């Protein structure tokens, strides 16, 4: 029997594939996969920019699809794989949908609510807590985000330089 670690890496690779779909659309590259009984029941990636919708996070879209496909809001016995640590909104949806386990890649120092800023997923004041596995393929997941934001910064820098050059030419 394969170890949980091997399964976690396999499913995280699937989440990374979703993140890359987001990146191709110029979305922040975050992907999520929901797994039940060893099968992927839903997959999603960030669509916030495309949809201009603050709640179009990968986790929420995957949860929404899974609820529709299973015909239930209860996703007990499911595992959510996500490339970036869930934010407060996504952590709330995870708790409310009764996801059993969350596995994430990169931590989020600015908004992580699965252990970095706080840990909503395991707060015993809620009526549901999740098992949590952090840092699966952390380097790969973090690199996707780092590369994406570096390209954004470089693009802005280039645009600024081009505008400066154009203004300079206009003055001549």
Automatic annotation (TrEMBL):
<comment type="subunit">
    <text>Homodimer.</text>
</comment>
<dbReference type="InterPro" id="IPR002125">
    <property type="entry name" value="CMP_dCMP_dom"/>
</dbReference>
<dbReference type="InterPro" id="IPR016192">
    <property type="entry name" value="APOBEC/CMP_deaminase_Zn-bd"/>
</dbReference>
<feature type="binding site">
    <location>
        <position position="57"/>
    </location>
    <ligand>
        <name>Zn(2+)</name>
    </ligand>
</feature>
<dbReference type="InterPro" id="IPR016193">
    <property type="entry name" value="Cytidine_deaminase-like"/>
</dbReference>
<feature type="domain" description="CMP/dCMP-type deaminase">
    <location>
        <begin position="6"/>
        <end position="124"/>
    </location>
</feature>
<protein>
    <recommendedName>
        <fullName>tRNA-specific adenosine deaminase</fullName>
        <ecNumber>3.5.4.33</ecNumber>
    </recommendedName>
</protein>
<keyword id="KW-0819">tRNA processing</keyword>
<dbReference type="InterPro" id="IPR028883">
    <property type="entry name" value="tRNA_aden_deaminase"/>
</dbReference>
<dbReference type="GO" id="GO:0002100">
    <property type="term" value="P:tRNA wobble adenosine to inosine editing"/>
</dbReference>
<feature type="active site" description="Proton donor">
    <location>
        <position position="59"/>
    </location>
</feature>
<comment type="function">
    <text>Catalyzes the deamination of adenosine to inosine at the wobble position 34 of tRNA(Arg2).</text>
</comment>
<feature type="binding site">
    <location>
        <position position="87"/>
    </location>
    <ligand>
        <name>Zn(2+)</name>
    </ligand>
</feature>
<feature type="binding site">
    <location>
        <position position="90"/>
    </location>
    <ligand>
        <name>Zn(2+)</name>
    </ligand>
</feature>
<dbReference type="GO" id="GO:0008270">
    <property type="term" value="F:zinc ion binding"/>
</dbReference>
<keyword id="KW-0862">Zinc</keyword>
<dbReference type="InterPro" id="IPR058535">
    <property type="entry name" value="MafB19-deam"/>
</dbReference>
<dbReference type="GO" id="GO:0052717">
    <property type="term" value="F:tRNA-specific adenosine-34 deaminase activity"/>
</dbReference>
<comment type="similarity">
    <text>Belongs to the cytidine and deoxycytidylate deaminase family. ADAT2 subfamily.</text>
</comment>
<dbReference type="Pfam" id="PF14437">
    <property type="entry name" value="MafB19-deam"/>
</dbReference>
<keyword id="KW-0479">Metal-binding</keyword>
<keyword id="KW-0378">Hydrolase</keyword>
